[in-house]
Amino acid sequence: MEGGATPTPRGTRFRVRSLTAERLWLCLFDEADREARWQMDAVGEGWFEAFVAGAGVGTRYGLRAEGRYAPAEGCWFDPAKLLVDPCAVAIDRPYAYDPRLGEYGFDTARLVPKAVVTRLPEPLWPPPPRLRPGGLIYEIAAKAFTRLHPDVPAARRGTIAALAEPAVLDHLTMLGVNAVELMPITATIDERHLPALGLANAWGYNPVTFMALDPRLAPGGIDELRAATASLRTAGIGVILDLVFNHTGESDALGLTLSLRGLDNRTWYRHDAEDRLVNHTGCGNTIACDREPVIEHIVGCLRHFVLRAGVDGFRFDLATVLGRGEEGFDTDAPLLRAIGDDPVLSDRVMIAEPWDVGPNGYRLGAFPDGFLEWNDRYRDDVRRFWRGEATCGELATRLAGSSDIFGRSGARATRSVNFVAAHDGFTLRDTVSFARKHNAANGESNRDGHDHNFSWNCGVEGETDDPAVKAARRADIKALLATLFVSRGTIMLTAGDEFGRTQRGNNNAYAQDNVITWLDWRGRDREIEAFAGELARLRARSAVLRDAEFLTGQGDPPDVAWLRPDGAPMAVADWEDTGRHAFAMVLRAGGAGLIVMFNRGREPVAFVLPDGRSITAAPRSVGWRQVNA
Prior knowledge:
alpha/beta
C-alpha cells in the first residue's frame, strides 16, 4: 500500500514511512488552525498508520515525529516541528523561509504549509509520448513564460493553466514544438540567503516534497496540470516535467526541518563516515537514491505524474545523484534500473542532466540506453565554432550526433539533447552580447555563475544602439539557431530565445523572479522569431534533419557528404585547419537531399552545389538548399 492520505466514504486513512522514528503523530487542523493529534500505529517495515473517521477531502494535516535528537549523529527528531507528509499531493500554501524552522524546540505549526487530503483524478494510461528522438523540446519556466503575456487572461498569467491558452498554443505550434519541458513546478522554498536580499527563487530547483505542486504555479493542483497536459496533447505537444530528486530545500546542518529531515533523516540523506551530510549537489544535502524506501518513493512520484496527469516523461536535475551508491555512479544503479523496468514508466521520455558536483560527477554518455542526455559539449563546441575557436571538424562531430560520446557501445542512434542555451547560463541573445557575466543583481558580488561561457559581445559589452553591432548580433543569433535546427539528435530551445530575450548579462538568474527572467512578449524581436519559424518548417519537412541515427558517410547513397566550398570533399587537413571558416553538409535520404552551408567568416563565400550550380553564403550565416540526391 502506498503512503499518503487516502480518503474513503467513512474517513481518511493516513500512512507514512520512517525507518528510524520511535513514534509518529498525525496532526489535523480545523479552520481556526486548532490542532488535534492521533498517535499513529506501527504496522511493520517502518510504516505507521492512522484512520480518522469523518476526515474528508480538504482536511489539512501534518506530522510530528519522536526519536533521538543528535544532529552530530544524523538524528534530527523534534516533536515541536510540524512535518509535511512526503507523499502529500497538495499543500494549502507555499513554503516560506523562516530561520525558526530550524530552531530546536520551536513549534512550527504556524510556519509550514499543511498537507491537504485530496481526491485524485481517475488514473489514465496515456498514449505514447509525443516526443521522439530527433524532436524539439521547448524549455519553460511556467511563471516567467506567461507572467507578462498580453494575450493570456490576467488571472491565468504565470500558471500552468496558461499553457492551454490559444495564443500560447499557436506560438508553440509555429515553432514545431514536440514537447514542452516544464522547469520544476513542485513546491519549492527560497534558499536562506535570498529573503534578506529581497530576492526569491525563480527556477524552482529547491523542493521540499516531491509530489505537491506549488500553489502559486498550479492553484488548481494536479487537476490543473492534467487539463493543461490534455490541451497540449490535443495540439500535438507532449509535457515533460523537470524534477529534482537530488536534494531538498532542508539544506545543510544549518538548514530547516520541514519534512524528510524530521521524519527519517538518516534514511533519506547521504552521510559520510563522520555522520556529516554529503553535499554532491552544492545545495547542502544529497538524496540517497540507492536505498529501497527512497527508490520506492521516487518511482511512485513518477507514476503519479504519468497516471494522474498524463505527462510524456521527465528531465532529472543533477541526474548523476540518481545513479550514485556508496561506491559512486553506476549505469545499472537500482533506481535507474527500477525506472526502466516499471511498466508505467518504461516507454516514457527520460532525460538526464548527466552531472553533479561530487567526485567523478560528470557522466555525459554514461546513462542507460533509454535515457536522453543534456549535451553541454554540443553547446560549448557550437559556441566555440562561431566564436572562431573550434575547427570545422569539431562542429561536424556535433552536427552528426556526437558519436564520440554516445556511440561508444556500438549504438547507431544518438541520445544527445542538443542546445546552445538553457535556463542555466546566458540566454542566446546574451551569448552574443556579453563577453563576461553580470550577476551583481544576485547579491553575491558577481562571484556566482559560470566564468567560462564561450560568449562574445560583437564589439560592445551589453546593450547598444550601434546599428552595425546590432546587425552582427542578429546574424550570430540566426547562425546559432540554424546550427541547432540542422543538428542530429533531439534539440532543445529555451523559451524566449527564439525572439531575443535577455537577462541583462546575468548567467545565473535563479534568484530573479522579476522582469529579468519574465519574458517580454511585447518587445520581442519579430524578425528572429520569423526566422525561428522558418527553421521549424524546414526541420518539419526534412526527415533527414529529424533522424536520430548518427551521420556516418556510409550507405548508397551516403547519408552525408562533407564538402569544401569548391565542391571537393573535406580532407583531414581541412577538418583540422583552424583558419577554415566554411564547409557544407550534404544530407541524403531516399530521393531527397539537403545541402547546409556554414560560413563563420566576415566575407561572403561561394559554394559549388552537387549539381554544379553555385550559391553564395552570407557572412556569419548558415544557409540551406534542397538538392537532388
